[in-house]
């Protein structure tokens, strides 16, 4: 969820918390004023350096720092960036419990040099002697951790054995502790509390904040992205990384990958142990990744590639149309890196078919309308019948560029509309990745030249998917009113929301 979408689901009290994190000079604002101010300043609010400034965890005690870290870690691993508060608390406690369970095992630190652990524990004990860790102490501990080749997970295990993790006495954080951390993050303008969320997912970490938050936490990739990265490596690469981390190198590829995941090896630290030629070969195996440059540049490109992938959870046995729908926006943009990496397509030629099938799924399953079967092959990508018997047609236009509605498409769509002899076409819709304002001209031209006075609209895949997933939250009606889409010109998100509220 983006800042704009989250702000739309917040009332004055929660909007004010965000505002107070970056400005004190506005005085009291009405709800709409506060929301508009946040949206207008979204880019500034999301700058990584500003996120880092607001998320200074040295202003809180170590116990709060731990729970804040886990709250944000959980949110970074939610594709939708939104979660119910109760479920968030349970996920935080589950992560803490898993760490305590592992620390309780006799072999918890079996692959770590005993002398290094002893030195590291001694330093931690000194640092925790006064009950907190200062900024300088943290910097020293971090440098020592890297020098002794101790992972961040191993540090948590040592702290658990010392009884200072997750909280003093080695106790799990309570629901009250986690709620307190959420309140802190709201006042820092990091977590948005969407108290108007119809689906109950009221805790939101806006997507725009992810880069800055990851930098503060020292996290490079989400759990799913790390899993995908290691799964894309060869057995030889995995064994080499494991060997450098003093971990066993025997087993199948799945076992090697799982071992790296469980050890929570930071990708850049693991890959840094490889030869430059190995990194060259890895870059060459990833779609769209440049192979040239220094070792550091190649390493950064590999991590960045997996960080930018959109990893969505779709059951293995799900209908292919479900998978296509999940990547609807990426299909419109022809985002081949994401589509290939997520196995949505196997080659570029699959994009158009998948985009069309995803759209049919959207109308059929999300909007609940029956599709009209069109004879022959020279016809638009889809058609539905309006309540009055007229037709709404659509055509998918995937492109890596901003859609301008070229004249060639004008001629193509005019033919589709005129060829519909039996029933009048009341609306022709073009579904695109992003649209230029210039497209309005040919929308009007096609309306007047169609000979059926058909409305012609252009809508982005992102906004059409937004309609499909949010219309029920904006109305009490049980059926979707197709007149929402029977509009002229470019259909913006704001206009769509207004039309839904008026018509439904």
TrEMBL record:
Q: Which domain of life is it from?
A: Bacteria
**The protein, known as:** Uncharacterized protein
The organism encoding this protein is Bradymonas sediminis
């Amino acid at each position: 969820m983006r800042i704009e979408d989250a702000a739309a689901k917040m009332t004055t009290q929660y909007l004010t918390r965000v505002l107070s994190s970056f400005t004190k000079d506005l005085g009291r604002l009405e709800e709409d004023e506060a929301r508009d101010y946040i949206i207008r300043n979204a880019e500034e609010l999301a700058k990584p350096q500003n996120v880092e400034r607001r998320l200074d965890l040295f202003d809180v005690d170590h116990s709060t720092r731990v729970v804040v870290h886990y709250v944000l870690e959980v949110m970074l691993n939610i594709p939708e960036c939104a979660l119910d508060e109760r479920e968030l608390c349970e996920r935080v406690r589950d992560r803490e419990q898993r760490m305590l369970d592992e620390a309780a095992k006799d072999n918890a630190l079996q692959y770590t040099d005993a002398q290094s652990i002893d030195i590291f524990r001694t330093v931690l004990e000194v640092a925790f002697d006064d009950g907190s860790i200062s900024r300088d102490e943290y910097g020293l501990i971090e440098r020592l951790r890297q020098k002794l080749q101790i992972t961040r997970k191993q540090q948590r295990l040592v702290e658990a054995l010392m009884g200072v993790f997750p909280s003093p006495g080695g106790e799990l954080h309570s629901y009250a502790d986690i709620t307190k951390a959420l309140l802190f993050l709201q006042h820092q303008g990091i977590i948005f509390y969407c108290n108007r969320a119809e689906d109950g997912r009221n805790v939101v970490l806006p997507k725009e904040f992810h880069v800055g938050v990851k930098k503060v936490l020292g996290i490079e990739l989400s759990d799913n992205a790390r899993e995908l990265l290691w799964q894309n490596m060869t057995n030889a690469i995995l064994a080499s990384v494991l060997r450098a981390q003093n971990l066993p190198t025997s087993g199948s590829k799945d076992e090697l990958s799982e071992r790296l995941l469980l050890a929570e090896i930071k990708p850049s630290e693991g890959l840094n142990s490889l030869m430059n030629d190995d990194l060259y070969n890895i870059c060459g195996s990833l779609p769209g990744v440049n192979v040239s440059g220094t070792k550091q540049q190649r390493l950064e490109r590999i991590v960045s590639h997996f960080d930018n992938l959109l990893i969505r959870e779709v059951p293995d046995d799900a209908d292919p149309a479900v998978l296509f729908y999940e990547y609807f926006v990426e299909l419109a943009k022809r985002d081949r890196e994401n589509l290939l990496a997520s196995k949505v397509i196997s080659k570029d030629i699959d994009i158009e078919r998948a985009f069309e099938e995803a759209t049919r799924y959207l109308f059929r399953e999300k909007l609940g309308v029956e599709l009209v079967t069109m004879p022959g092959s020279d016809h638009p990508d889809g058609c539905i019948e309006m309540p009055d018997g007229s037709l709404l047609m659509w055509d998918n236009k995937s492109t890596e560029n901003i859609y301008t509605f070229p004249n060639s498409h004008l001629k193509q769509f005019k033919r589709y509309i005129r060829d519909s002899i039996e029933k009048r076409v009341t609306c022709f819709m073009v579904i695109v990745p992003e649209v230029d304002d210039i497209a309005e001209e040919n929308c009007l031209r096609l309306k007047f030249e169609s000979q059926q006075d058909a409305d012609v609209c252009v809508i982005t895949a992102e906004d059409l998917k937004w309609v499909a997933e949010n219309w029920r939250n904006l109305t009490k009606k049980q059926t979707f009113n197709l007149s929402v889409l029977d509009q002229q010109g470019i259909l913006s998100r704001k206009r769509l929301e207004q039309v839904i509220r008026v018509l439904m």
